[in-house]
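Write out this protein's structure.
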Amino acid sequence: MRLLFTLVLLFPKFVFSQINKDSIHFSGYTEIYFSQDQHNWKDHQRPDFLYSHTSTNHVALNTAVLDFKYSSNRVKTQLSLVEGTYANKVTSSEPIGFGALYVGNISYKLSNKENLWLQAGVIPSHIGLETAIGFSNLSLSRSLAAENSPYYESGIALQYTSKNNKWFGSVLALNGWQTMTLRSQQSRPDFGSQLQFKPNSKITLNHSTYFGEVAILDSSQTRFYQNFFAQVQLKDKWMVQCQADYGMQETENKGLNKHWATGFIGLAYQANEKLSLVGRGELLNDPNNLVVTGVNNDLWGYSFNINYLLDEHLMFRAEWRNITSNRYTFAYQNFNDKRMNGLNLSLAAQF
């Protein structure tokens, strides 16, 4: 009886000692925005090839994310729930119940000596420089390159980080191109890779690939995609980002004959601790209508941002954005045009 009483007293101490050795972290992110374009859109919605900040003429919620992370020496897990106009559009093809999920995965460390992890579940995309969390991006809106490549993916990833933290590599077996479940048109797993090099704290170089199927109506086609990006901190106040993507897709004769290319370059100036100015130029060439529906799509544009930190956890942004095409036609309420111009305002908070 005395032994049982002693165990009862010691059990809470044992449990809390284990929790103290591990790490539990909660975080959140909310972004409210107002967008007003030069002309009014039908149903107040920007074109289908845009996914973030798509509602116009009214205040809207772009993203609200609640994130839970747990980590120990050998195990990590993450669960992120998301809501907003971004989530509703980007997950519209997922089964009912999956639309609120942004991240849900478990990682296990395979080696005591090396930083080698096996990760499984729904994970953020390994392609591209920008993320769904606007606080971490230079510009308010996502680039054409980010909008038309995966925001998330699902499957298994083997990840390795070198001991000096300069190299990161990953190979992935995926369910598909931005999907949480295997679709009926798909018959085989897809694959991806990522190689990232950080020679110092100011330079990041990255190359990512995807090879697999994409669902096309009641069938599928093979897609091969390459992504390159670089981020360089110039002295103390300047930062430059650039990204170049190239995709190929098969035709009816099973050759990778269709293609598209997209990319951007962004330059940021940190005026002081609170104020930063950002300019971005971008383009998307999609002659085979693989990611933008229409006829012979050539899109290019520019944007200018003013970012101001009202608080350590609160940012106000104002952006003027232009997208132009000599072929694509933007359908407004009362007429069509080859150009869209608009103002984006946002208030984003993270904790």
